[in-house]
Amino acid sequence: MSNGTKAVLNYGDGKSIEFPVMKGTVGPDVVDIRTLYGKTGMFTYDPGFLSTASCQSRITYIDGDKGELLYRGYPIEQLAAHCDFLETCYLLLKGELPTPAQKAAFVDTVTKHTMVNEQMQFFMRGFRRDAHPMAVLTGLVGAMSAFYHDALDINDPHDREISAMRLIAKMPTLVAMSYKYSLGQPYIYPKNDLSYTANFVRMMFGTPCEEYKINDTVVRALDRIFILHADHEQNASTSTVRLCGSSGTNPFAAVAAGVACLWGPAHGGANEACLNMLQQLQQQGGVSKLGEFVAKVKDPNSGARLMGFGHRVYKNYDPRAKLMRETCYEVLGELGLEDDPLFKLAMALEKVALEDDYFVKRKLYPNVDYYSGIVQKALGIPVAMFTGIFSLARTVGWIAQWQEMITDPEYKIGRPRQLFSGATSRNVMPIDKRK
Ligand code: CMC
C-alpha cells in the first residue's frame, strides 16, 4: 500500500534515510518506519500515540475534523437509522451487512449462546455485593476462559468464531447478573424469543415474581446506545485488547483487559463521571453556578475537567453525541421526563462551553458520553452500570479487532520501546553501607 513517495529523515552528520509512505483508502498517509531502528539505531518517541498508527485496519474509520464515523464504510447515522445492534455486530465482524437469511442465522446463533455456565453464579458469589460492576465484570469476562476452554485455539477459525459468539451473546447476561447481584435479587435467565436488547432489558429489570413487560422506548434507546458504542477504531481499550491478544493469549483474557481499560474516567468511565459531575453541579446550585464551574474546569491547576467534553480524534462535534442528544429528546419525551433538570443543566452547560474561547480554541466538543448518561439514567439504569453497558456494546468491536489482528500476516507481539531517563548501571551497596 505504498503510495510511491518517500519520507526522508536527515540525522547525525549529514546522514539521511528514506522511508516508504503508505496510503490508506482514506485518511492521512503513514510513514513506514519499521526499518528505522535497524538502519539507524534510533527509536521514535510518541507517548500517547499522537502520531503513530499501531496497525492496519479495515473496520472503523473516524474523520475527526469532519466529525465522521464509519463502520466498514457505513456512516453511523445511517446504521443508527436503519439497522439494529446485531446487524451492526455482523457488519463489524464480517465486513458486510447481512442479508435477511444471514441475519436470521446470526441472531439464532447469538441467541443460543446467551446462557452462562451455571457455575459462574458461584464464582460471582465471591465478590462483595457493593463492588463496582466494572470490577466484577473484569473478573467475570476473564473467568470465561476458565468456563469455556473447549474452543480456545486462537489459530483455529472455528474456535475464534465460537469464542466471538460466546462473548457477544453472554455479555448482556453477565452485565445483568452483576446488577442483580448488587441488588441481592435473583438472576433472570435469558429468554430466547426476545431480541438481544429486549432480553438484556428483561434480565436487568425483571424479577421471577411477575411477567416483565418490555417497554419499546427503552429497548430502542438501548439498542441505539449499543450501536453507537460498538467500535471506535484504535481507542485505548481496543488497543489494549490488541496488545494483550498479541501475546497469543485467549480472547476472553484479552477482552477482560479491554474491560479494565474501558473503566477509566478518561475513556468509558466518562459517562459515569459526567453524570456524577452534573448531579454534583445540580446540588451546588445548578445553572446559577455554571460560570464558577466552567472557570474551574478551565483552570489547569484545579485538576477538574468538563467530563463528556473533548476527544483525542474528534476536533468537531462527535457524531455519536449528536445522535445521543437526539435520543435524549426522544426518550425524555416518550417517558414524560421533558423537564428533567439534569438534561436542562447539561444543555445549558453545553451552550456555555461551546461559546467559551477556551473550548473553541482547543476544539473541545461534547463526546458521546456527555448525553449517554442522561439517557441511561432516564431508562432506569443506575450510574454505576453505565460503563458496564458500554463494555457490553464495545465487546463486538474488541473481538472484531482482535480477529483482524490474529489473521493479519503482519501481526507480531506488540512491544513498544522507551526513551530511558533513569539511572545508568551502578553497584548494589550492602544494606549497612547505604545512606
Ligand atoms: N475539560 C477541560 N479541558 C480539557 C478537556 C475537558 N474535558 N479536555 C481537554 N482539555 C484541554 C486540556 O487541558 C488541554 O489544554 P492545554 O492545551 O491548555 O494543556 C487541551 O484541552 C488538550 O487536552 P489533552 O488532554 O492533551 O487531550 P487528549 O487528546 O490527550 O485527551 C480526552 C482527550 C478525551 C482524554 C480529554 O479531552 C478528556 O479528558 N475529556 C474528558 C473525559 C471524557 O469525556 N472522556 C470520554 C472520551 S469519549 C468516550 C470514549 O471514546 O471513551
Commentary on this structure:
This protein is globular. Strands 1-2-3 form a three-stranded antiparallel sheet. Strands 4-5-6 form a three-stranded antiparallel sheet. Helices cover 51% and strands 7% of the residues. By secondary structure, the chain is mainly alpha-helical. The model has no long low-confidence stretch (mean pLDDT 95). The protein contains 18 helices and six strands. The structure holds carboxymethyl coenzyme *A. Carboxymethyl coenzyme *A (CMC) binds at residues 232, 235, 266-268, 270, 297, 305-312, 362, 364, 367-369. Carboxymethyl coenzyme *A binds at residues 232, 235, 266-268, 270, 297, 305-312, 362, 364, 367-369.
